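Key result, reporting period 2: structure in, sequence out.
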């Protein structure tokens, strides 16, 4: 999951900076909340998680790592789609925001449990 997390985090990074760029050139500052969370929950958090999984193989081989990956990557897009539309004045998918946010919070709690259970001092794997 380490490599998968790092690869998908770069996708969020590209989307996040393109959105920031669009906001800068078109004065669309109302989208800051989407931009900030795509960059921070997408790029930054997922890259950090990916590096931790890659450095500590016992956290990576746990099923909790897979569950974290999928919940994080289902919840964040749902939350961002709902928030993007809401901030554009369309509340039809607003219900996706709390659903997505709950899924992301559960994903992060599972990540924390995985680290407490499985993060041990071990040789860094060289792949
Ligand atoms: C080319 C890259 C980027 C551009 C053009 C850009 C542009 C912007 C713009 C226009 C705003 C709104 C500022 C405002 O409302 O006053 C903003 C806010 C923000 N950006 Fe970016 N951004 C970029 C990359 C990033 C990255 C890589 C991150 C995080 C890893 C990031 C994190 C944030 C955060 C957290 C805010 C909200 C700041 C606040 O609450 O005041 N941005 N960005
Ligand atoms: C499920 C997880 C999260 C939820 C539901 C959440 C929710 C929120 C909410 C409701 C706001 C206020 C938005 C506003 O006033 O416009 C906010 C702002 C912010 N959050 Fe989060 N957040 C989450 C995770 C994070 C994480 C992990 C980070 C950093 C790594 C972060 C960084 C920020 C920043 C920088 C702002 C200010 C951005 C702005 O000016 O709009 N958030 N968040």
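The corresponding designed sequence is given below.
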């Amino acid at each position: 999951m380490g490599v998968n997390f790092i690869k998908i985090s770069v996708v969020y990074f590209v989307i996040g900076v393109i959105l920031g760029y669009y906001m800068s050139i078109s004065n669309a500052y109302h989208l800051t909340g989407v931009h900030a969370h795509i960059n921070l929950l997408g790029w930054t958090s997922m890259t950090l998680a990916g590096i931790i999984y890659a450095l500590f193989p016992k956290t990576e081989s746990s099923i909790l790592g897979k569950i974290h990956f999928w919940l994080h990557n289902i919840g964040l897009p749902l939350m961002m789609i709902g928030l993007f539309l809401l901030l554009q004045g369309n509340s039809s998918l607003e219900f996706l925001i709390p659903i997505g946010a709950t899924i992301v919070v559960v994903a992060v709690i599972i990540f924390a449990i995985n680290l407490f259970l499985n993060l041990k001092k071990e040789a860094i794997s060289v792949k």
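The two ends are 13 Å apart (CA to CA). DSSP finds five helices and no strands in the chain. This case is discussed further under Risks and Mitigation.
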